[in-house]
Amino acid sequence: MFTRFEPFYNESIRKTIIAFGSLFNQIYFNRKNSAGEVTETSRVPLTYGPKEKFVQMLKSESGLTDQTHTKITLPRMGFEITGFLYDSQRKLNRLQTKIKNVNEVNYSSFIEVPYIINVGMYLFSRNIDDNLQIIEQIVPFFTPDFTVHVNMNTLNPRVAVPVILNNINVVEDYEGSFDDRRTVNSVFDFTIKTYVYGPIKDTSTILIEDVNMELFEGLTADNDYKIFSIGYTGDSSTLSGITYYER
């Protein structure tokens, strides 16, 4: 049923995730001294990956040389897709089609299908102050949703995609020895209301240039028949000729 000679890929989910990540790739934080003066301003790195990968990176050390070992710098942020869910509340007639003319070419596709993408974002910091500082740069924009506009495809160049912040969970690691590295972990739970699209077809009108047609009128008393032969050429605004003959 789903086998096609020409596979299609509108990159709807990919573009949605890229738009989500662009909301958080320009977050900065300040470091202050005991006098309250800003001594350092740094950008928080953002990558795509599972939470377990970040935990493993925090525990492991990278060896620059046999004598020099470094640990990952904090704070750091990451996010991943945690699930997909069909959104029946935004369901439309699936047989409805959308047609749009772009550069004198007609494109058509079935109506979009609404889906919910669940995304988990993770924030790791060395102390609670850095963690809270970054949280306060995120939560004021979600009340509880923030809408981004995504260029999905030719038929849908500007689609409003709400990003909803459901909750935030802050976890501090107190257990372990004095040699263990202390981290503060905040988990953000997001819901993205987006759409996925089927194949887009070129439905431009085909120009008919030449037509040859014969019309059978009926049998005569002698069991012969009469035929109208009509020819049309697209270069002329009138019929090129009408011939009537008997057989």
Structure description:
It is a single chain. The two termini are 51 Å apart. It contains three helices and 16 strands. The protein is mostly beta strands.
Q: Can you tag this structure with a few keywords?
A:
six-stranded mixed β-sheet, mainly beta, 16 strands, disordered C terminus, 247 residues, three-stranded antiparallel β-sheet, elongated
- Beta-strand residue percentage: over 45%
**CATH homology superfamily name of the largest domain:** Myoviridae tail sheath stabiliser
Q: State the end-to-end distance.
A: 51 Å
Count structural domains: 2
- In this structure, how is the largest beta sheet organized? 6 strands, mixed
Count of individual helical segments? 3
Query: Order of strands in the sheet with the most strands?
Result: 3-6-9-12-11-10
Unreliable stretches covering 5 or more consecutive residues: 63-70, 236-247
Give the structural class. mainly beta
Q: Provide the helix percentage.
A: 10-25%
Radius of gyration: 32 Å
CATH class of the largest domain: Alpha Beta
pLDDT average, as an integer? Answer: 79
Number of strands: 16
Q: What is the overall silhouette?
A: elongated
CATH-assigned fold name of the largest domain: STM4215-like
- Using the 3D structure, state the CATH architecture of the largest domain: 2-Layer Sandwich
**What pattern of helices and strands is seen along the backbone?**
HEEEHEEEEEEHEEEEEEE
